[in-house]
Here is the input.
Amino acid sequence: MALLQVANASKSFGETQVLHDVSFMAERGEIVCLLGPSGCGKTTLLRIVAGLETSDAGEIRFDGRDLAGVPVHERGFGFMFQEFALFPHRNVFDNVAFGLRMEGKPRSAIEARVAEMLALVGLTGYEARRVHELSGG
Here is the structure.
């Protein structure tokens, strides 16, 4: 059984159909790449799989589980946005810790992992800063 199965996914925004009957499967351990010109629906498809958009038709299954109606925070997917996707009302620590909290990790594990990740990207000492105080470069 495929780990990720997309069957007949379709999506329109108004009169513009961006996905029409898209189907594919990805096996566990397989590396998959979506290629296509700008505006062809790659990001829309990924947003549907992640639960950030709903499809107009079709089915998405992950590890055999139908994802219809499964909230985004219960799907277990990560998504790297092209634009910034930080919570402007949260500080740096809380932005980094968000996913760990959603997974129900204990506070001590969250603090250790956030410290590790901030050190990795050279942001130790910036935990209490608001994200708008950081450079995007």
In short: The helical segments are 42-50, 92-102, 107-120. Strands lie at 4-13, 16-26, 57-62, 65-66.
